[in-house]
Request: fold
Amino acid sequence: MEKVCDAQIKGVSTGTTILAATFDGGVVIGSDSRASIGGEYVSSKTINKVIQVHDRVFCCMSGSLADAQAVTKAAKFHLALHSVQMETPPLVIAAATILKDLCYRNKEELQAGFITAGWDQKRGAQVYVVSLGGMLVSQPVTIGGSGSTYIYGYVDAKYKPDMSREECLQFAINALALAMGRDNVSGGVANLAVITESGVEHVVVPGNKLPTFHDD
Amino acid sequence: MMALSNVLEAPAAGFNFENSSRNAALQAGLEGQTPRPMKTGTTIAGVVFKDGVVLGADTRATSSEVVADKMCSKIHYMAPNIYCCGAGTAADTEKTTDLVASNLTIFSLNSGRKPRVVMAVNILQDLLYRYRGQIGASLILGGVDCTGSHLYTVGPYGSVDKKPYLAMGSGNLAAMGIMEDGFRPDLELDQAKQLVRSAIQAGILNDLGSGHNIDLCVITDRGVDYIRPYQESQYKDHRTNKYRFRQGTTPVLTDTVVPLELEVVEEKVQQMETS
Reply:
């Protein structure tokens, strides 16, 4: 009988590097696109981890793929209902709280973490992180997933609040490229979304077009 | 109004993990001597081509190291325009696809619409997620609907992925190699059939859990072509003896007839309305 240790995720996991950063007028959210089984086999090279939960709210998933997909599905439904009832686009914190509630109340059974980012009328561009156990924290920039450990230094050094859209996008792409280069369970393409008041732009950078660094 | 897509009782809101504690209790009670289910070993694959989808599968079902069924059918009917290949535990794939096929039929009758592939995927994902991996079904769904040709995979834990080419089952590593090399967007029908055939063949040759024939299923907007078998196994067994015994082989020594004595206890006559 196999024993699955706590650190292992049953089934397909997203390994992952996810991040989000606010800039002047919006927010950039991005992830890699690798899904693996047991940290040994890449089951999908182009899995989508950046999910749109509402018009101006996106979230990135990490952890067990099945759990994360189920939670985002439930969150999408709750957010849509909430938005219809309130007759107004939802606040980003509402989306983050819905995810947090699902993660916290089912923490024994779930293994999924999220970064929620978006724009709303009340507070503008925001980033929230919902960790594995259901903690909800707001930060201007945040990184998550197994690949994030390799880029804490880069993010701390290079992030500045109130960057321009182009600077922030390049910062995010660089960070993802660096993490994907060092973490074996992150890879594939860089999927990003730029969310501003006027709309959403999807940016996809294929693996071979990612920036290279001194020893690549 | 109840959602048309799921005509069974809509499950209670939230996640339901009741069965996993029951399973844990059962496993503890049986002390590791749990019965081995029949698995399909299996290589299944699918590819999206210019006019639709081609699904393929081998036909071997194993029970540990014994081949339980040489002509197992792994491409299951879901809807007139949607078929599903199943890998994993044979009973689970069979019953899960049957259940969703029934649901889709009722949905079609209720709504007057042909079901969409994404709908079947969503129902399967919800079902498998609810059972937390206890239903050992890895599925490849393919079909053509009003929005185009689609190919999805659903894992046993409820993860979903949408790709133009896929392989699952124990032979998927071998099959995936062939797929990665041979796949191009907008293949012609013959090229697509050859690609899937080669992928399943790779699984049959290199995986002990896959073998025998190759079944193909071609789905286009004009209809379905279920080719079983597309390719037969080169290892056909030839029985040396006939196992039919002619009448008289076993001699009859005595013959006794005992008539059963029955008496009429009650007689009821019901007139049938023939007017």
About this structure: The longest strand of chain A covers residues 112-120. Helices of chain A lie at 65-86, 92-105, 152-158, 165-182.
